[in-house]
Amino acid sequence: MKEMDCEMRKLYSDIEVELDKVNFNDIWSGFSRTEFAIYNKSKVFLKDDVISHDERFLGNTSIDYNGDKLAIWYIEDTSQENIEELASNIVHEMFHSYQFLNNESRFPNDLKGLDYPMDLKNYEIKYRENMLLVEALSSNDRNLKYDMLKEIIGLRIFRLQNYGDIIKYEFAIETVEGSAEYCGAKALRQISKEVYEKRIERYKRILSKDISKIFDIRRSCYYSGTLFLLLLEDLDISFTHEIHGQHQHIFEEVADKVGYSSIKIDDIKNLELERYYIEYKKETEKKFEDFFNQSFEKYKGDFYICGYDPMNMIKHKDKILCSHCIFLEDKVENKKIFLKGPLVVKLEKGTSNHVIEYYLKKIVDDMEQAH
Prior knowledge:
With 371 residues, the chain is α+β, with helices and mostly antiparallel strands. The protein has helices spanning 3-19, 24-27, 83-101, 110-113, 120-138, 142-163, 168-191, 193-208, 217-234, 250-258, 271-292, 366-370, and strands at 36-39, 43-45, 50-52, 61-65, 68-74, 296-308, 313-316, 319-322, 325-330, 335-340, 343-347, 354-361.
């Protein structure tokens, strides 16, 4: 066996040792350990097997494998992995397997989520919510924690009333991804309390100090979803752990139970966030300009998006820039196409997944460059 294969197999065994420390049902009632795999660019390492890498193994997620769900995690360099953190991340993906097996129906629509409102006031209010969440978790005053939770709920309801159902995109991410990240964090608490505390402090810092991260709404909600559930835990506020047949997001269930306090929106303003907001809009436009300023090839047709990397997509007007990859279903040829990024797709007006054109970076060979 090659040296890299030995390192990957040892890493797999080390993950299993850490997972043996975890009581899954204590993390989330009904949650149990599922199968997992780690992989690199050439091979996939399963519990009792090694197979060649194929396109099923893409990103860190849960996939269908031999009639069951399999949590997968990509390993770039075994020497750079922290085994405790890695085991925690595997638990996150195992929880996705558990969600799939229990017919979770509250997954966020990431393509519609790309139309999340680029409105400064919306972000200012959301940042206020994040600050309250961090302050509540850091407080030892139970009554203050509860009051802050009610204010968070009031602010979110205001945004929902003023910006519409697109705000529920956040609730969906927190319900599906936030709960998975929460399970990963609670597993880490059982594995190493010290590493767990460092992780939670990092999440608090991201939400309260790294202001520019708020514009990556999907990733931001991983952190807010985790901390929100930890706050509920602190306050002994229960919510439905059963997944099958649930349609209400966790936040909505809690809001109905807890209620909310009156809020003053006019007082919420953040000049530092406003500067980041202006810069973020400029950077988004520049990424599209940079793509189209290079040589590219255009393809027209009738396509539908059937797979994507939600962490690496941005939208501007009717175009989506995919820095990693995308899967398209060609309706004319009746086949699926895997496209590696960076690339841009153009949408049919008024749709979120109907592609009428896509643009691929032109590969210039050495002979062409010489001319």
